[in-house]
Write a structure and sequence with these properties.
Helix content: 25-40%
Low-confidence stretches: 1-34
Structural class: alpha+beta
Oligomer: single chain
Number of helices: 8
CATH architecture: 2-Layer Sandwich
Largest sheet: 6 strands, mixed
Strand content: 15-25%
CATH class: Alpha Beta
Mean pLDDT: 88
Order of helices and strands: HEHEHEHEEEHEEHHH
Radius of gyration: 17 Å
Number of domains: 1
Number of strands: 8
Distance between the termini: 34 Å
């Protein structure tokens, strides 16, 4: 597994180091990816709310810290848990998944109230501000299949909506390059270790979080002001 700097999420880099990284990124796009938002259209096909007040959705878009942080700030989301999806239970741990040989992706299980926010709207946020769906088996500085862009539908209806939205974005040429997001149904989700949960909120001054993830929260607030909630739905307080 290659990283732009050795395992940046585990090293106590200084703010000055992050500044240097930012300057390097501006002069050499191949060195680092600057987090950006893309305004995506409202899904033309969406799931009907029905009578349920709680459903789950699973998304993978690089490091789960940032993806979890984004969805924790979405109104209508009651819980967002970092974890692994795509592989077997026996390899659902950070050390194994980090090898890139387990089939797992770092993923986030989002519990939401479909009467307040639809699955399609969650997809819109996922593609717009949570990650870059055009990066194949990588996201920013993190590379490997465990950082792939993927949607893990929890139902036939979610599969239908996800495929339709990816097709909609492709036909509209919203992104400059093709979307590589995989739709992987019938995959179990396994919660990650406790130290990964609520990581963005607990470590806001971490250089990795400051540079790669906090901008996503700001983009969420700017692009989806009516869906943004200031107080995150933390695992620590949701049980």
């Amino acid at each position: 597994m290659f990283r732009i700097f050795p395992n940046p999420r585990r090293f106590g880099l200084t703010v000055a180091t992050v500044t240097l990284l930012s300057l390097a990124a501006s002069s050499s796009p191949s060195f680092a990816e600057v987090t950006r938002a893309v305004t995506t259209p409202v899904p033309a096909v969406d799931a009907a709310p029905g009578s349920a007040t709680s459903e789950v959705a699973v998304f993978a878009g690089g490091c789960f810290w940032g993806v979890q942080g984004v969805f924790q700030h979405v109104d209508g989301v009651t819980r967002a848990v970092s974890g692994y999806a795509g592989g077997e239970r026996t390899t659902a741990d950070y050390q194994a998944v980090s090898t890139g040989r387990t089939g797992h992706a770092e993923a986030v299980q989002v519990t939401f109230n479909p009467r307040k926010i639809s699955y399609g709207r969650l997809l819109q946020i996922f593609f717009s501000v949570a990650h870059d769906p055009t990066q194949l088996n990588r996201q920013g500085p993190d590379t490997g299949t465990q950082y792939r862009s993927a949607v893990f539908p929890a139902s036939v209806e979610q599969t239908r909506v996800a495929k339709a939205y990816i097709a909609q974005l492709g036909q509209a040429r919203v992104f400059g390059t093709p979307i590589v997001t995989a739709v992987e149904p019938d995959r179990a989700f396994y919660a990650a270790e406790a130290y990964h949960q609520d990581y963005l909120t607990q470590n806001p001054t971490s250089p990795y979080i400051m540079y790669h993830d906090l901008p996503k929260i700001e983009f969420l607030k700017q692009v989806f002001p009516l869906l943004y909630r200031a107080t995150p739905a933390l695992v620590a307080t949701s049980g």
